[in-house]
Amino acid sequence: MADLSLRADGRAADQLRPIHFQNHIAPHATGSTLVAWGNTRVICGVTVEEIVPRWMKEQKVPGGWLTAEYSMLPYSTLERKPRDVAKGKLDGRSSEIQRLIGRAMRAAVDLHAIGERTVWIDCDVLQADGGTRTAAITGAFVALSLAIKKLAEQGKITGNPIINPVAAVSVGIVDGRPLLDLCYTEDVVASVDMNLVMNAAGEFIEVQGSGEEATFSESQLAALLGLGRAGIKALLAAQQGALSA
Prior knowledge:
Order of helices and strands: EEEHEHHEHEEHEEH
Distance between the termini: 40 Å
Helix content: 25-40%
Number of helices: 6
Oligomer: single chain
């Protein structure tokens, strides 16, 4: 029998935290949104440069490029997080996450169709309560869609280069129980932690999962994937609602 008891924040095991998008939060960006997901807040902004990286020119790679940067602001956590510039190098976690965001968004668009330009996606965490990378990816797609719409309105691109909408969500096992969308207090005690990135076709873009000094069974993995699929479906609907509002 399924465990129907509520979590510490009152949610069911298969329930997402409330999510809301505030679009056009950064007026100088080509597209932007502030994603509020539970108590996590991430600003996602897109800027476009009418150039491509030098390596693309040297290798004669057609089309454009898309890349991402991710950072957590000093006041986003309970204890002040020093800026990377103050340390003189990019934090390893931040580097890993911004590569993940870039891979996820490149899977969402036809780079040939965006033309010879570079699309930058900047994701800045204002407040962290678990799931900052999944919020960044989910918000980045909304900001990217807004930017593409603006480029089309300006006549810089024709057609729609978006292949499939993309969203991401966390799942995990806490006290032996599979849960969807972990908040911070759940994330730090999870025996299994996993992040899923999927598109609207139901295809996986990335699966990041590991046991924290623990193992997990095939049936537990299936339960986590099932929760994640349902969560992604709800997030894709939330994204489309934000874009049609």
